[in-house]
Amino acid sequence: MKNNILKLLIAVLLIAFVSLQINAQKDQTISKKLKWSERMALSIMMQHKESYMIDDATTPKWDYVHGLVLISFDELNKKYPNQKYSVYSKTYVDKLVQEDGTIDTYKLDSYNIDMVVAGRLLFDLYTTTKEAKYLKALQTLRKQIEEQPRTASGGFWHKKIYPNQMWLDGLYMGEPFYAQYTVTFEDGKNLDDVAKQFQLIQKNARDSKTGLFYHGWDESKQMPWANKTTGTSPNFWSRSLGWYAMALVDVLDYFPKDHPKQKELVSYLNQLANTLVKFQDKSGLWYQVTDKGSVGGNYLEASGTAMFTYAFAKGVNKGYLPKKFKTAAKKAFSGMTKHLIKVGQNGEVTITQACAVAGLGGNPYRDGSFEYYVNERKKDNDPKATGPFILAALELNK
């Protein structure tokens, strides 16, 4: 009898606890008076209670999407200091970086350059705490850069499983970390090597007719998707161009103005920005396949637009780009809030029309065709859109 009463009491308490949790969640609202950067960050926290859950992950994993979003949280915390932002970022790192500096789920011998970008979260943590585990984790990722397989001309392979290939994505995944590390710990001795990665992309992935960059370049020209003369993939994908644009504005943070390669990188950014505005839609947005407009299922896409907006706004703020690009960035941000943003009953922000994923090769095989890009699935609040949206909002003070 006593056992039955105890079980009943426990059941009642559980129901009451769940009810309280649900009511608390219902009562949680996000004020429309906040800046868009904070509204998006709070929406992510509402959607993903713990930071490792970003991108609907069910267990903690070291991954580039978490790195991207939490970099934006760190920047948000610098602009609008709030412990909940810094804690949200730090708890992700501390779930994965162990006391001996090893990184759970990370495999150095995969030589996947995507896995380097989350290492950018470690610099400030090490600076502020001086905990050895953060330094050891940084050194592990630096070791990957040191050992990363390269093309014959010296470009980092995107992954070990993608030999001789450079993807635009990889410039963002690896180079800002590499630049920050070499400036922080090596007196900048490898900045020329950082610049070389961009030089190779400029030389080999840029289309002379449009000025746009192809998603990938296979130096061996062996991949089925690769042009047999140039080695480039067949199409221009806005998000890959966005990764490249963000890579440029972020690595420039670590190039002194008197460095021989600094002006060169600034010229690359200007070339790209001048090209991209030619393809900006009247809505302010950019299409999934950058140069094809509204044909054959092509659509105005969130992540590429957010990335371009951030790169333009930061480029102007830092003095790399003329002021006209701030106007283009404002037009793009306005287009996102008008056409791609939904606001829920609790004030939560959802960004729509984001391509979930796209790549080249692999299994199942991805051929880089127009049809491939426009038919990849879309995902609301995809982290490749939310992170850059926060960064763009911060640069525009929106």
TrEMBL record:
InterPro entries: 6-hairpin_glycosidase_sf, 6hp_glycosidase-like_sf, Glyco_hydro_88, PolySaccharide_Degr_Enz. It comes from the Bacteria. SUPFAM superfamilies: Six-hairpin glycosidases. GO terms for biological process: carbohydrate metabolic process. Keywords: Hydrolase, Signal. The keyword ATP-binding does not apply. Gene3D superfamilies: 1.50.10.10. Pfam families: Glyco_hydro_88 (PF07470). GO terms for molecular function: hydrolase activity. Residues 1-24 form the signal peptide. This is Unsaturated rhamnogalacturonyl hydrolase. It comes from Flavobacterium sinopsychrotolerans. The lineage of its organism: Bacteria, Pseudomonadati, Bacteroidota, Flavobacteriia, Flavobacteriales.
